[in-house]
Amino acid sequence: MSKEMLEAFATLEKTKGIKQDVIVEAIEAALVAAYKKNYNQATNVVVEFDERKGDFRLMTEKAVVEEVHDDRLEISLKDALAINRAYELGDTIRFEVAPKNFGRIAAQTAKQVIMQHLREAERNQIIDEYSQYEDELITGTVERRDNRFVYVKIGNVEAVMPRNDQMPNESYNPQDQIRVLVTHVGSDSKGAQITVSRTAPDMVKRLFEQEVPEIYDGTVEIVSIAREAGDRTKIAVKTNDPNIDPVGTCVGQRGARVQNVVNELDGENIDVVKYEEDPSDFIANALNPAEVIAVQFGDEEDEKSALVIVPDYQLSLAIGKKGQNVRLAARLTGYKIDIRPESEVEFVDEANAEEPEVTAAVEANESSEESNDLSQTSEAAESTSDEVIDIEE
């Protein structure tokens, strides 16, 4: 039995990754639980395990007393001396309990405890091993699929890819090799659970890190990503090195680098734009390939909104198919963007706007001067008229 027990331990450690110490602890807990179920107490139970032989021994400890009140915990001095003449009052004697003496319910309890401990150990082992891969790319094999999930084999565990993490333009067949992003490592009532995705924006980020060494070493930084998986992605990049073009670095010679990412994502369009500290310039870049005439911001500081003016013939390009271009630009920049054609916006020249007021003021002054001249002429005429009358008189 001991040989079979040790072989079983080795098999569990190889297939499930559960260490022998964990298995031994589970069996010890199961024996204690079975004893408690059978004898209704387990305060004096000790389990011994012989690592060399692979044997378990369940022992009960009894105190040597003058008068026995509970034979499950105590033994009389007379009975102790019958076992060994060296025992004295207050000593503790261990007695082996054979598991075969347990009843059916106790045996079932032991089995349940062992299975529970093994499930917990397997779950913890999976979480410890794969938590380091969270938010990282990993290659797996499609095992099967149903109406809700695609099940992907990763190492010795099975990960799930929910429907909203599946690319709409891809089909997943058994034995297909796919690269996925590990988005969650945790547990539920059924055990450890690993969730993977092919639609998460961070998947694009990880792919660019693998294709562009400058991103991996931090020379070029990905500031933000806006993605509609399977169709189009916008990615904003920047660098602190004035000698490096971040967009050109990500695109690569003849577009080789970005094309590798596009191929991995099954033809998904990717726009790489340059991040700018000036929000108006950043928004203009985010609306690429559309041309932007001007960007105006709202009066309210708390509301991040922008009015973007584009040429009339660029309006549909700026908005994009079903509003996709402006929607992705808004996610990329964090601004609510309203696009207007040039013909619907009146541009006011402030310098010219002041000229009519100046002209009006000049005309008013001229009219006033003319009025004063007329008044003075009239007064002079009246004075002359009075003088003439005086002469005539």
Count of helical regions: 12
pLDDT average, as an integer? 80
Major sheet attributes: 5 strands, antiparallel
Along the chain, the helix and strand elements come as HHEEEHEHEEEEEHHEEHHEHEEHHEH
Proportion of beta-strand residues: 25-35%
Descriptive key words:
elongated, single chain, about 400 residues, disordered C terminus, alpha+beta, about 40% helix, five-stranded antiparallel beta sheet, four-stranded mixed beta sheet
Describe the protein's architecture and organization.
- The protein has 393 residues and is of the alpha+beta class.
- It has helices at residues 2-16, 20-39, 77-83, 104-130, 201-211, 213-216, 246-251, 256-264, 279-286, 315-319, 324-333, 350-392; strands at residues 45-50, 55-65, 74-76, 92-97, 137-145, 149-154, 157-162, 177-188, 191-197, 220-228, 232-239, 269-274, 294-297, 305-310, 336-341.
- The strands form 4 sheets. A 5-stranded antiparallel sheet has the order 7-6-5-8-9.
- The longest helix has 43 residues, at 350-392.
- It starts with a helix and ends with a helix.
Question: How would you sum up this structure in a few lines?
Answer:
Helices cover 42% and strands 27% of the residues.
